[in-house]
């Protein structure tokens, strides 16, 4: 039951994008197209889950026994970069249209703060292996839900005329804030 609560809480009440505002660069840049946004959300979820598991194993089997926990940031970033590079190679080889849609933003998953944040949160919260798996999966799904919802909302912005001084970027940030408030409504359901 605790695993289900962790998944739901990390996807809804503690959404990594809308509660902690992590991963905003690709979030705002890719969320103009629903298909690209959902593809990016799936890629981020994939990388988030795998890097969290790799980082969990590295932290508890290498860093702690060697008493070099202070190297966790470097180790986590290197594992994220390696996994994103592998994902980039696979997408270029097997799904070229999706690879072309991501453009420069696929390598930027490497520096997506949400992925590093999930690895750091799981260590800080002292999750077990399965709890870390649930947390990373729920966080990835939450990021996917948030970016796809934002893309759906931004689709309708094309038919409206934004306030003169705000422009598209300003309206997008306002939408992001409103979405964060909407997701805050889930906080009464789970703790």
Describe this structure in words.
The protein has one domain (2-186). It is 72% helix and 0% strand. The chain contains eight helices and no strands. The chain has helices at residues 2-13, 24-30, 34-63, 72-94, 96-102, 113-124, 129-157, 167-184. α3 (34-63) runs parallel beside α6, α4 crosses α5 (96-102) and α7 (129-157) packs across α8 (167-184).
Structural class: mainly alpha
Tally the structural domains: 1
How confident overall, as mean pLDDT?
87
SSE order, as H and E?
HHHHHHHH
- What is the number of strand segments? 0
Radius of gyration in whole Å, from Cα?
17 Å
Q: State the distance separating the first and last CA atoms.
A: 13 Å
Number of helices: 8
What is the share of helical residues? Answer: over 70%
Runs in which pLDDT lies below 50 for 5 or more consecutive residues are: none
**Principal-axes shape call:** globular
Strand fraction equals under 5%
The major pleated sheet works out as:
none
Q: What are the defining features of this structure?
A:
8 helices; mainly alpha
Compact summary:
The protein is mostly helical and 191 residues long. It is built from eight helices and no strands. It has one domain.
How are the SSEs ordered, and which strands pair?
Layout: H1 2-13, H2 24-30, H3 34-63, H4 72-94, H5 96-102, H6 113-124, H7 129-157, H8 167-184
